[in-house]
Write a structure and sequence with these properties.
Layout (H helix, E strand, L loop, with lengths): L1 H48 L3 H9 L4 H15 L5 H13 L6 H13 L5 H48 L1
Length: 171
């Protein structure tokens, strides 16, 4: 009885690990898509309303959730504490919010780029920078979709296969 229970638990644990790894890859895509949506919202607020960054961030808090909301809250908290260098504020917030998420180093580099131009030039040039950033984000999203298609299925199947192999070995 205990042996059968152990075999079933080993199979389930291995399968679950494979599915969890597969879900990490899917989460990467969601995080990148959410960030791209944020860049579009910021770009719109800057381009049309010509609002200062703290006002833009406060305005977006009600429209966002999850990691994006945390990113904006981190930026605002740094502003309120007297930090005015947006590049430092943005990079610190990106590292704090996304440092433990399933994003690649390239993803984090692209997410950090926003701080390099945000608030650094006139409105029109910032819009051009956002356009370039969104193209880079689109490439990262395409890469994540490809990873889901290939590695996502592989991890799921590998977890189940390894679980079956362990079960057979224990029999």
């Amino acid at each position: 009885m205990f042996r059968v229970t152990g075999i079933i638990l080993a199979f389930l644990a291995s399968s679950l690990i494979g599915f969890m790894k597969s879900n990490e890859i899917k989460k990467r895509k969601t995080l990148l898509e959410d960030f791209r949506e944020l860049t579009e919202l910021i770009s719109t607020r800057i381009g049309y309303f010509k609002e200062p960054l703290p006002v833009v961030f406060y305005g977006l808090l009600s429209e966002t959730e999850g990691e994006i909301r945390s990113l904006l809250e981190n930026c605002l908290m740094s502003y309120e504490m007297g930090q005015k260098d947006i590049n430092t504020v943005w990079n610190t917030a990106v590292e704090t919010v996304y440092g433990n998420e399933p994003l690649s180093d390239d993803d984090l580099r692209v997410l950090s780029k926003c701080g390099q131009f945000l608030g650094q030039s006139d409105y029109d040039n910032q819009i051009k920078h956002f356009s370039l950033l969104n193209r880079q984000l689109d490439r990262q999203i395409e890469d994540s979709i490809e990873q889901i298609r290939t590695k996502g299925k592989m991890y799921s199947r590998m977890g189940v296969s390894l679980g079956a192999l362990i079960a057979i070995a224990l029999i």
